[in-house]
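User: Hey, my collaborator sent me this sequence without any context and asked if I could get a structure. I don't really work with proteins. Can you help?
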Amino acid sequence: MKILITTFPFPSEDLLKLKNDFADIDIVFPETKEQLLKEIVDADGVVSMALKQEQIEAAKQLKWIQSLTAGVDAYPLEYLEHRNITLTTGRGIHKIHMTEYAISMMIMAARRIDTIFLNQQKRNWDSHIPQNEIHGKKLGIIGLGSIGQEIAEMAAILGMEVYGIKHTPTEIASVKKVFDMSGLDFIAKNCDYIIALLPHTQETEKIIDEKFFNLMDKDAVFINMGRGKTVNQEHLTQALNDRQFRLCISDVFETEPLPENDPLWGMDNIIITPHICGPVVDYLAKAYTIVKGNMGKFVKGKALDNIYSFKKGY
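Assistant: No problem. I've predicted the 3D structure and written it out in structure-token form, which is a compact way to encode the shape of the chain:
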């Protein structure tokens, strides 16, 4: 059995110990695209951040791909489904550091650190900026996967009242009420902080739109950490221009990088981060446990974890 592991743009050191864990398997770490294309021909499995269709077409006996990311936009999904190649995701890698991003951004918004920082640049000492807290506030999480549930748990510990949306609602200890997608209006109307963590599918394409923004409270904060295309960016821009709600914090956009001429750059009620809440310095060290677990199951022919559903889109 042969498995390729390609970790670009990250160094592969944290996954090299898989060679010792699976000494009986031919594990190859290709260092160039040319080497990848050569070695993939007889590979049974590939661990990667992304693969192009032409690379997969060369893999005549490929049965399994382990993505090192939770989102799998960087793979030719229709072709994988056609070839009946199992795709597993990196679900679970991001939940701690993305939770810290979410909590830190909510606290920053409550204490208006963005305004204070801008005042610092102007040498403006303004001690009258309203200071608030997230304790006692209502949080709505749109997408209660592993990251959403981790955020819910931490937010509840900090005293927030948490509501959430899950494709198939189930009871979650830290969430007061779990809705299906029909609960979007409730979240928009009732929550002080709203965090979007949706994957991009046909169902979620631009699902957060002007109707949603128009229902939000004037003092509410909207945070998008999921996928840019789940939000109608034109409607978001208009809502911010009309000051429908107080602040948007977005790590993802319809087009990335966000074009220099996009009007969002010039607005004072949005904080733009350049799709950085997913990466972390010890990313592959976190990925190691997931990869090792699935590799062991693949070798033994057992059911894999985090199998991507081509039907559901996540």
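In plain terms: Residues 283-300 form the longest helix (18 residues). You can pass these tokens on to your collaborator as they are.
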